[in-house]
Amino acid sequence: MRENLQPDFLPIENWLNNFNYPLIISGPCSAESEEQVVSQAKVLNKIEHVRIFRAGIWKPRTRPHSFQGVGEKALLWMQRVKEETHLLTAAEVASPQHVEACLKHNIDVLWIGARTTVNPFYVQNITDALKGVDIPILVKNPINPDLNLWRGAIERLYMSGLKKIVAVHRGFNTYEKTPYRNNPIWDIPLELKRIFPNLPIICDPSHIAGNRAFIQDISQKAFNLDMCGLMIETHLTPHKAITDALQQITPDQLESLLSKLVFRKEAGSFDFQKILDTLRNEIDTVDIELLNLLKKRMDIVSKIGNHKSKHNITVYQVKRWNTIINERTEMAKKLGLNNDFIIKMLRLVHDESILIQHKIMLPHSKKKKE
Length: 370
Ligand code: PEP
Ligand code: MN
Hints:
alpha/beta, TIM Barrel, Chorismate Mutase Domain, subunit A, 2 domains, binds phosphoenolpyruvate, binds manganese (II) ion
């Protein structure tokens, strides 16, 4: 695929019969026993929107002593889920052997986990193992906040002929600490959507949250940002789950969580669109005014830079900067604007102003004349 060529990912409705937005994928973090898998799937089968049953069969665990998943025998349990419910089945694959085993047991959907997306060799091996196979595949974001690794994994799969691709946003491991297990950094999936507008993106609030208390709010945020589904970990007895006990919820809790969510649509009725277009025109006009004002401000900054340069005065003057911050935030407060936002914006504008003046003051600057 040439860079910048827009891939034609298939919309979910093209591969999932009677798909009714949003897509809900649910099931335990790990398959633990046949009884657990089958009985839980039967309960989830009754919940509206739940269409795919997930269960981790091979678990990527940080340390070797931890439970590594029950392995291939769980694929037979997943087959029972298919026979005894209307749900499709999904399992995580991290190697060509996993792919082969899943295909042999007719798993319907595969997913690539965060610890696999992170490594292009692993992704390529999985891609090669899927050559000629037409199966939906979910691609979780890599553990680290690197959009290109996520994008690259999706491109590898697409280039090998897979079109039923869905990205899964499950948060990122960052140095910066947040209340969540994985920092959501929403800008990254939004940027992925900007690059691939027709790529379906769903959210995995369970792995973002790491704690069931946060799952509702994260799920709503995902819908507000135009994601089209959720992968939520559920367990009949979450506190007894072998893996990820803190973040799993019961199927009942899932049902109640879903009933409280507002599912948002990207497009609305004709009247809705008319009003939206009018408001967007107003925004366009304001943005043009903003850009013109910024240009005007930077032109004045250049004049100041030349003036300071001529008189050998420093670019950065802390007193002036403090005055700007105090006066502008005071005014912004009166206007009801968010203080943090205004400070961030002033800082950006100020940094750019310093840079412009600094360039003027470089010894060989041609722009030194006033
Ligand atoms: C999982 O879904 O069980 C899992 C291991 O997720 P992630 O790859 O997002 O950590
Ligand atoms: Mn998990």
